[in-house]
Amino acid sequence: MKEHLIKKYAKPVPRYTSYPTAPHFHSGITPSVFKGWLGTIDSAKPISLYLHVPFCEELCWFCGCNTKITKQYTPVKKYVALLLKEIELVSDTLGKRVDVSHIHWGGGSPTLLKPEDFTEIMNALRARFNVLPDAEVAVEIDPRTLSTGLTETFGLAGVTRASLGVQDFNLDVQRAINRYQPFDMVEKAVTALRGVGIKAINFDLIYGLPNQSTTNVIETAKLAVKLDPDRLSVFGYAHVPWMKKHMRLIDEATLPDVHERYAQSQAITATLENSGYHHIGLDHFAKPNDSLTHAAKSGELKRNFQGYTTDTAEGLIGLGVSSISSLPTGYSQNHSSMGQYAAAIEAGEFAVARGVELQASDIFDRKIIERLMCDLSVDIITARLSGDIPCAALRLLEQDGLIKITAECIEITPTGRPFMRHVCAAFDKYLVEQKAQHSVAV
Questions:
Q1: pLDDT confidence of 440, banded at 50, 70, 90?
Q2: For a designed S-S bond to 107, which of 28, 53, 357, 417 qualifies (C-beta 3.0 to 4.6 A apart)?
């Protein structure tokens, strides 16, 4: 029966880090619209900030992020100046020194920044916003480019969480994805980060990569556990060469099929759970005493573009090329083209290229999908908020054992957990008309 389900549900569906999903963003959301949305932010409530650094020293063939390869620092330095201008532009538009509860640095690779530039940007954020004393400041780390000077700067700048891209420790897999990163390199980075006071450590693992097997993903998970991370994210590799041309460098004959992908994901899950980690939502794991685990147990877990989070801020403002903002009124995304982004910011304008305004029904559907992704259940009252419950689709999912429907709630079963994106898709009113190609949900 499990083989039947894997074959049946190994189909592309959204990851639901937003709703409506990114393919429904359109050019009708302009810089002036975004400016108006910023004016509606409740300054009495904290917001979150996301900063995108779109540079890496070397191309990882599996990467789906917006990034550029550079061996020179000149373009990075120019980009720092653009970020500083955008910070001023957002702050001036808000008009008040708004509280900030979360700051997340992503990429690309923030570890390409020189210490003085990272410090300057953090100082600008603190000058322009009221970064709360207990704010989480998280940075995505590439262990290959993490210098001693930058590590010390992270500690001095108040970074509280580091998220390290591990992917897989197997050398054959690393060769196949063009990312050489042995265990001792990651161990050294973790030790250094903890040495400057950054105690919260996250790891990203990936299954479904070329040359991977169930045996070596288990070994990678065990090695990761030895380094005692607080949280782990376990993602399925999304092979989308029609979107990311560099993925054509990966030999498709070396990619595992959907059955092997499923076996790998379940093997990693079992390894981490047996090591004492709690399974959070679809693909995250955390220690029993971690705030993510507490949020999951209390029904306060959230989901955004960085995955599962404890961030309860209603507004997230994205800074940098391709960054996405999530506000109570809708989503907006900056230009993905560096040239267009730079031209807008240098002209003193927001670099918004597209987005979508939330309708009342979108807000209700988003809540349903978020609760399913976070709690693995949604109460019937909430499920009825946006109108008729999609009974026909849900009955089919129930027949396959993926969900259980009672008078009180719709609950995702243990069998259905790996396929929860399909359960969410039943409530996605846009999916039937959507032509975009998504990653396979296994």
A1: low
A2: 53
- What's the CA gap between 433 and 421, in Å, rounded? 17
Show the CA angle centred on residue 309, arms to residues 304 and 312, nearest 5°: 85
Residue 376's CB is within 10 A of a number of other CB atoms, namely 21
* Angle, vertex CA 6, rays to CA 251 and CA 404, nearest 5: 145
Whole-model pTM?
0.94
Determine the 3-state secondary structure of 139 from DSSP: strand
Residue type for 422, please? H
Q: Which long-range contacts (CB under 8 A, 24 or more apart) does 260-263 make?
A: 260/213, 260/214, 261/207, 261/208, 261/236, 261/440, 261/442, 262/6, 262/418, 262/442, 263/214
Two tokens, residue 87: 């910070």
Strand partners, 280: 284
Q: By 3-state DSSP, what share of the chain in percent is helix, strand and coil, each rounded to 5? A: 40, 20, 35
- Inter-CA distances, 342 with 164, 173, 298, 324, 355, Å: 29, 37, 43, 16, 19
The one-letter amino acid code at 43 reads S
Are 177 and 60 in contact by the 8 Å Cβ rule? The answer is yes
Q: Is the pLDDT of residue 18 over 90?
A: yes
Are 279 and 273 spatial neighbours (Cβ–Cβ below 8 Å)?
yes
Residues 308, 312, 316, 319, CA torsion sign: negative
Q: Report the C-alpha gap between 222 and 209 in whole angstroms.
A: 18
Q: Residue 251's CB: how many other CB atoms inside 10 A?
A: 10
- Written as six digits, the tokens of 176 are 């196949």
Cβ proximity of 297 and 23 under 8 Å: no
Q: What is the pLDDT of residues 353-393, one digit of tens each?
A: 999 999 999 999 999 999 999 999 999 988 887 777 888 89
